[in-house]
Amino acid sequence: MLIYKGNTKLVTKGLNFKFFFNFRGKFAVVKKCIQKDTEREFAAKFMRKRRKGQDCRMEIIHEIAVLELAQCNLWVINLHEVYETATEMILVLEYAAGGEIFDQCVAEREEAFKEKDVKRLMKQILEGVSFLHRNNVVHLDLKPQNILLTSKSPLGDIKIVDFGLSRIMKSSEELREIMGTPEYVAPEILSYDPISTATDMWSIGVLTYVMLTGISPFLGDDKQETFLNISQMNVTYSGEDFDLISESAVDFIKTLLVKKPEDRATAEECLQHPWLEQSDNPACRAWNKSTGGETSDTTQKDADSASEKSVDAEKTEEEESIVTEELIVVASYTLGQCRQSEKEKVTEQKAISKRFKFEEPLLQEIPGEFIY
């Protein structure tokens, strides 16, 4: 059953997808797919609605809602469609061909990121995170595995993915949770103090350190040692790994790896740091709840221009199709109202199988562990 569809119109006859790799995580499998009629590439995230005997449908709907919120941001992965079967919800997402930045973080020095590359990518990450924070969203799992590249060679742009642990911050409530990936969690998570947007900024500090050096600053021999290193701020900025790193880059990291959340730089402040040399032309059109509308002026015009080009390209594709039909769109905040009979579920599972074709697995299970 199609329960969400983005702006792209769909051809209802003969619209098939084929899948050709698996990327398996804790509760989800991501498969690359190609829309047969248009040859457009997407990534489909298959998410089980029941996990460890519990109904997790509303958690998935939360992730969908965050992705809908960030549709106008260039640095957050774009949500195209959502399907629901009896056992899964399937998010059809923008395809990032370059894979995770993790691969280049751990590559040999000759193939690893250069500082100029990290500066460019970090500006994009911060612009994406700044957008989320302005809209009261905290990601809470920012790490190299959750930052993708649009292409690997030449080095493309970033896409922030996986909002499964994200939370909406409410000014009237304190959020305290034990969650995240051990190497990237902030001290306040370990001490069970309130989580805030500053929690993401700690993770960005660790992420910058890893991208520049290929080393995880707090990683110990086991989880307990890692947590101790974080709590005691056992981090070094010297040694041969920093021989080619500028002092300005080190200063940037130091503004983030600060134990007290209130003393950490915000995303906006980071974008003003001398190391990044703030761009005059922000790359996205952001929806700001505090103003009740979209930002305007140069940013608005640039985004509108890019949007018009995209729409023109889509119109060209649509004109080539003989039969088109607008499929039902249900916004995430009303997804809970969707219901269907068992017979309809079987029918829709068959329909999805017609849209998608599978081939042999390509990627292995996602490494790492969570602490929640």
TrEMBL record:
Domain Protein kinase: 16-276
Biased composition (Polar residues): 288-298
Protein's name according to its UniProt entry: Serine/threonine-protein kinase 17A
This protein's record includes keyword Metal-binding: no
EC numbers, comma separated: 2.7.11.1
Reaction(s) catalysed (UniProt annotation): L-seryl-[protein] + ATP = O-phospho-L-seryl-[protein] + ADP + H(+); L-threonyl-[protein] + ATP = O-phospho-L-threonyl-[protein] + ADP + H(+)
Highest taxon, organism lineage: Eukaryota
Biased composition (Basic and acidic residues): 299-314
Gene Ontology process terms (BP): apoptotic process; intracellular signal transduction; positive regulation of apoptotic process
Chain positions covered by the region annotation Disordered: 282-320
Family matches, as PROSITE patterns: PROTEIN_KINASE_DOM, PROTEIN_KINASE_ST
Localisation per UniProt entry: Nucleus
One MF term in the entry's GO annotations: protein serine/threonine kinase activity
Record InterPro entries: Kinase-like_dom_sf, Prot_kinase_dom, Ser/Thr_kinase_AS
Protein family according to the UniProt entry: Belongs to the protein kinase superfamily. CAMK Ser/Thr protein kinase family. DAP kinase subfamily.
Principal location: nucleus
Gene Ontology cellular-component terms listed: nucleus
Entry keyword set: Apoptosis, ATP-binding, Kinase, Nucleotide-binding, Nucleus, Phosphoprotein, Serine/threonine-protein kinase, Transferase
Keyword rRNA-binding belongs to the record: no
Broadest EC class assigned to this enzyme: transferase
